[in-house]
Each structure stands twice: as C-alpha cells, then as structure tokens.
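Annex B. Sample input.
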Amino acid sequence: VQLQASGGGLVQAGGSLRLSCAASEPTLSSRVLGWFRQAPGKEREFVAAVRWSAGSTYYADSVKGRFTISRDNTKNTVYLQMNSLKPEDTAVYYCAACLRCILSMIRLPSSYDYWGQGTQVTVSS
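Annex B, continued. Sample output.
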C-alpha cells in the first residue's frame, strides 16, 4: 500500500487547511487510516484516525473540536480538515494505515504498517 499525503502549507493562526491522503489500493474492511504529526525535537504523536468500514473516528484531545477526519471510499482518500489552527499545530503531518487495529492500538505509531511521506504544516502567530 502506498500513501500520498498532500495539502500542507503556511497559514496564520486561526486559519484552516485540509490535508489529503490517497491510498494506492482499495482499503480492507479491517483497516484504520490515521494522521500523526511530528514537530522538531518531539516524538511522533497521534492526531486522528478513522476506521474505514464503519467510519468510526478518533481524535487526540489537543485537536478535538478543531480537526475533522473523513474518508471518501470512492477515491480511497482520507482527509483531515484542520480549523482554528494554532502555532503549536506546526509539524510534519503523516498519514498511515493500520491493517489490523483494535481500539487500544489506534493511537500508537508502532501499530501502523504503512506510512506516507509527510506534509509540512506551519502555523504563524
């Protein structure tokens, strides 16, 4: 599976961006697609995830209410709509696919089998 992330950029605080992650093949019913981010000098952290078949969504507390994850089955694409962006949201954002994720695994980077190349999001104050 190949994942292609796009949509990053530079935005002022309070602005919005939408990230996209296109998968190279149709997803399996057990797959979870997630977004993670990594700021300089920090560990990669969970942002949001969606269970492809059921559409169940999961969010980090830091983005809940501001970010929305969604998927388009017809395009094999997952989106991350980011609103009310803050300077602390600045990071490289990665999409990833977990082939067999149970709930306790969804927030762990080590659970994911495939990763996209990352897209930079910079929020200026």
